[in-house]
Amino acid sequence: MDNTMFGGNAPPLPQWTGAPHEIIQVQAMLYASLAASLFSAFLAMLGKQWLNRYASTDMRGTGIERSRDRQRKLDGIITWYFDYVMESLPLMLQIALLLLGCALSRYLWDIDATITHVVVGVTGFGVLFYIFVVVAGTAFASCPYQTPWARILRHTHHTLRRIPNTLRQIHHIVLRGCYIPRHAIPLTLPISSDRLRSWIRSARSVQARQLNQQTTILDSQCISWILQTSLERGIRLSTLKFLSTTPTLAEFTPALVSACFDVLIDSVKVDEHNPVIVQGMEQLAEASVMCLFLTYSHLSIADPTSNSLINIRLRYREIFPRNLDFSSLPFSHILGTTHGAIHHGVELPIKWQDYKPTNHEHVVVAHGLSKLSWYESQWRQVPPLCLSFTLHYLSQDSLPPPSVIADCLLIIAIDLGCDALQTTILGERCVHVW
Question: What is the pLDDT of residue 357?
């Protein structure tokens, strides 16, 4: 075949007989919008079924067993990101609406300019308004116009803010030379029956400790849920008493701090710069103060950049100003210590000679003061109220319990500049002296 095949007459080119390309583009966006809308409706019905399954009570037993069963379901919802799946429903509807607006704008572009300008203007205004809502929800957590994108951007912002603190901690560990020794089982050596039995007992103890740790996590989450949802004074009081007797808070939820603070502000009011206990809530106020001090001091070390810790400081400073006088309250020592820890730089004249705690309360307070001393020493210096506590109880004729003595010595070591490491086991201390 050459240029003489058709004798100078070029054959006609095949013409497209289908729909115009503009119509295909419009229909593609319209069908995508329809598919997103139908899929969001399908997912909404499945979510309703899942929530009905979660709300059903399919277990009988004691209140503790039913609370743990409810907490297991809640942990499953958090583990499988159920809230993110449900928050994707409005996101899909928003995308479907955007596709519909774009499809209409493209379809009307070649038909009528006036109608096109109106549709494009309304669609553009909606997009700008949505961007404004996302920015406002990201910048201000109290903004009522929250969206899934605002939550994602806020979480990303908090993660980026923690990077410098994490780098400082890594730098601190590298310079100090802190390490955790690891003991390996010598598999190449002959294993005696006694050694084998000791390893089996050790493995069983580790398994029992892990099971106990899981139960402790469930109990901690149940306590937080009860304090947030229950308004019965008796239930709150018994829950706070149980929390104050917990031997360790290694796996407690940060929401416990906010829950204890909510109980405190319900039972203690500020009247003309004077804190006053609400009538009939004396025991509840005392228990909430002890639990707030216990959880706040632990969270200060466990996660000093926690959102719960930052929020509790802001809320506390708004309700309880710096210049309050707690001397009229029966639990002025513990509340004054907490007040001084949250208001950095405030030193209240606490008279420890008037403080006569029980042995258990003494252990809890001393342990909390050692944690606050370690936390404050990372940024400033050991608070004088912690040193006065140590000086007073170590100078008594009858010494306090051994755990209190260990915490007092730990406070002294921290004040001298030693590197103090606190383990998660109550009563175990470790100090590196350089």
Answer: 80
Q: How many CB atoms lie within 10 A of CB 300?
A: 21
The tens digit of pLDDT for each residue in 402-427 reads 888 888 888 888 888 877 655 444 44
pLDDT band of residue 45 (cuts 50, 70, 90) is very high
Output 159-168 pairs: Cβ under 8 A, ≥24 positions apart.
161/305, 162/305, 165/304, 165/305
State the pairing for strand pair 429-432/268-270: unpaired
Does the pLDDT at position 208 exceed 80? no
State both tokens at 286.
Answer: 């005392």
Q: Residue 276 above 80 pLDDT?
A: yes
Tokens in use for 240?
Answer: 């706070």
